[in-house]
Amino acid sequence: MRTADAHLPWGGTARPPWALEVTPEWAGWRYAGLRVLTLPTDGELTFATGEEEMLVVPLAGAATVHCDGLRLNLTGRESVFAAVTDFAYLPRDATATIRGAGRFALPSARATRRLSPRYGAARDVPVELRGAGSASRQVNNFCAPDAFACDRLVAVEVLTPGGNWSSYPPHKHEEDRTHADGRVEAALEEIYYFEVAGGAPGDGPVGYQRVYGTAERPIDVLAEVRTGDVVLVPYGYHGPSMAAPGYDLYYLNVLAGPGAARTMACVDDPRHGWIRGSWADQQVDERLPLTRPGTKEV
Exposed, middle or buried: residue 219 (CB in 10 Å: 0-12, 13-18, 19+)? Predict the structure, then answer.
């Protein structure tokens, strides 16, 4: 896979009513998907979830979500760089209506179990400061396996201060196995959705994403990304995600795979895994955390 195949610029996968739509069929895999919806003031969309469980994650704006007779009020946020947001969970085989204004991400995964629609409060989102020095970043684990129950879907947000690297050291999760050294790896498809501080969808400052493979499974991606861009990771080592100096970088990770248990198990590129040990002698970037839960949540 080349950069041109894995990097999806904003607008390239639009299919009304979605400003961005990546289905498993479109990506050439089986489980993970992502949609982005843009609603004008007092906008509304009713849709069926089909075989997918979904989240409604405000990127910029607020909404009410109606599903299975429930009304879930999302306070949302001004932007991904302004606050940690609340969100809604939608089960498979459901009809949902979103009413509001703004831009909303809908991560998804093919699901076998039908769970109940639920509200995820911003105050309950575990916020992790990971790495140190120029590899410092913030991870909002709002739909990590231990934070929120789903059938297959895993989703987290990462904020990287300008000039820093995240998704580092490079790591992979392309097969279910326990390595000879005891490291556990899971088979996961992954989508990166990006926003860059100061940018608008399809325009503005840039960040960079690297994906590379092995001789047995080659993949070679170095993508210059703007707000609204997507990078697909079907396999291979991914990282770093690079924030240009002066421009904080956000990405939403969507992961799903065939395993019976939800997991984010991965293994580092053995050439670079030593970098984790260097963090013990460095401080976490003092600019972190970049965001916290908002104060108007209901």
Answer: buried
Contact call for residues 150 and 254 (beta carbons, < 8 A): no
Inside any domain, residue 213:
yes
Is 190 domain-assigned? yes
Give the dihedral sign, CA 192/198/204/207. Answer: negative
Residue carrying the six token digits 């990462």: 158
pLDDT tens figures, 246-296: 999 999 999 999 998 999 999 999 999 999 999 999 999 999 999 987 644
Does residue 294 fall inside a structural domain? no
Q: Which helix (H) or strand (E) holds 211?
A: strand 207-212
Euclidean distance between CA atoms 229 and 68, whole angstroms: 32
Number of domains the chain is built from: 1
Pairing mode of beta strands 32-48, 20-22: antiparallel
**Does 59 map to a domain?**
yes
CATH number at residue 177: 2.60.120.10
- pLDDT tens, residue by residue, 192-233: 999 999 999 999 999 999 999 988 899 999 999 999 999 999
Q: CB neighbours (10 Å) of residue 113?
A: 10
Q: Token pair for residue 111?
A: 């699901």
Q: What is the dihedral of CA 106, 110, 116, 121, to 10 degrees?
A: -40
pTM: 0.96
